[in-house]
Amino acid sequence: MKTNTASLLLLLTLLTGCASIASDDNNTTSAEKIDYTRVTNPLFARIGIVSDKAEKDRLAILGMQGEYRVDFNFEETVLLKPGYSKQDDKNTGGFETVVVVKEDPNHIVLQHLLVTGTGYVVKHWRQDWFFEATERFEFVEDQTWERMSLPDEKIAGHWTQSVYEVSAAPSYCGTGVWNHRYGVSTWTSDRTWRPLPRREYTKRSDYNTINAENRHTVTSHGWTHEQDNTKTRRDGRDTAETLVREFGFNDYRSIEGFDFEPAYDYWRKTEDYWARVRSAWDRRIDSGQRLKLKTTVDGMPIIVATFEHAENVESMSEVEQLDAIETVLDEWTVSEQLVSER
User: Fold this and answer.
1) What share of the chain has pLDDT > 70, as a percent?
2) Torsions phi, psi of 50, nearest 5?
3) Is 245 exposed, middle or buried (0-12, 13-18, 19+ CB in 10 A)?
4) What is the pLDDT of residues 140-185, one digit of tens each?
5) Direct distance between the N- and C-terminal alpha carbons of the chain, in angstroms, rounded to an integer
6) pLDDT mean over 219-226
7) Is 154 helix (H, G, I), strand (E, B) or coil?
8) 67, 40 contact by CB (below 8 A)
9) Can you say whether residue 138 is alpha, beta or left, with left for phi > 0 and alpha for psi between -120 and 50 degrees?
10) Most confident of 13-27, 218-232, 277-291
11) In the chain, which residue ranges form alpha helices assigned H by DSSP?
């Protein structure tokens, strides 16, 4: 595996939104200097063949797997706070492969793996999809998530997406339905809270939360992730002020010709370790109604520790891996048995 801790920390500081490679001074990305060919999404045609709605939904979610050149674009739009100055757009890009970790009728897990042009690999964000979930684990305030029951109108025919950080820590969630009109497949979430994004928390201190609606669209060329974000400062669970709206557009274009083998090699060597990390998080999430992280907003103590374990996984026994994971999460997380305050 072509990774080392210094490189990982550097790459993690460059992640924007969910992922990116840093742009240069001319606002072009290093990804644009690498040869590859854009192709059609090989999984898209399957969606139109089936007639069952739930199966169409599943195939749309599975249609997000594959190899991509990704562009990440964020633009502040409507100024909401008097005197607020619009910040510069953020436009970056990179290469990602999305692999299927789990595929059950009612639960699909997709793992993103970032690869640089020089072959360095970072295990990225993860998206879990649950069909007709009756509850979800929501971000509610700084470093705090709670289990919330969903109303009946958000269960039947709905898919809940739960998004997880690079360390497999929870990030945000949303619930919505897929539609398959206009020759594409689109899922639109309800509005939910999410933590300060990685692209901002080394640069911004004037807000701490985003109120977001997310839209995923699977097309013949790949898929897109649109974000309707409102940057908000909250005191606990009370909204103190809203600053600005932001439009995020992440464009995953199917490609061939780029060498994703380092990502697959990394995943072959570490997927069992990361499965153990997911299980450790799941036990903590399932054991209470509230989970708190004791880290600062960047979560770096957990990220650094888990990535170092993954880097050294071939020299660690399963027992050593489990002990190391539990030690880290015991130190930095608290699971509480509390009644939801909603």
Assistant:
1) 89
2) -85, 155
3) middle
4) 999 999 999 999 999 999 999 999 999 999 999 999 999 999 999 9
5) 45
6) 98
7) helix
8) no
9) beta
10) 218-232
11) 5-14, 44-49, 53-62, 261-286, 300-311, 318-332
* Confidence check: pLDDT of 110 > 80: yes
> Cα–Cα distance between 214 and 159 in angstroms, integer?
13
Which of 275, 266, 290 is CA-nearest to residue 339? Answer: 290
Assess contact for 110 and 127: CB atoms under 8 A.
yes
At 119 the pLDDT is 86
CA-to-CA distance for 191 and 214, rounded, in angstroms? 8
Structure token pair of residue 196: 């300060």
CB-CB contact of 340 with 141 (8 Å):
no
Rg (CA), the chain: 19
Percent of the chain clearing pLDDT 90 (strictly above): 80
The C-alpha atoms of residue 207 and residue 201 are separated, in whole angstroms, by 9
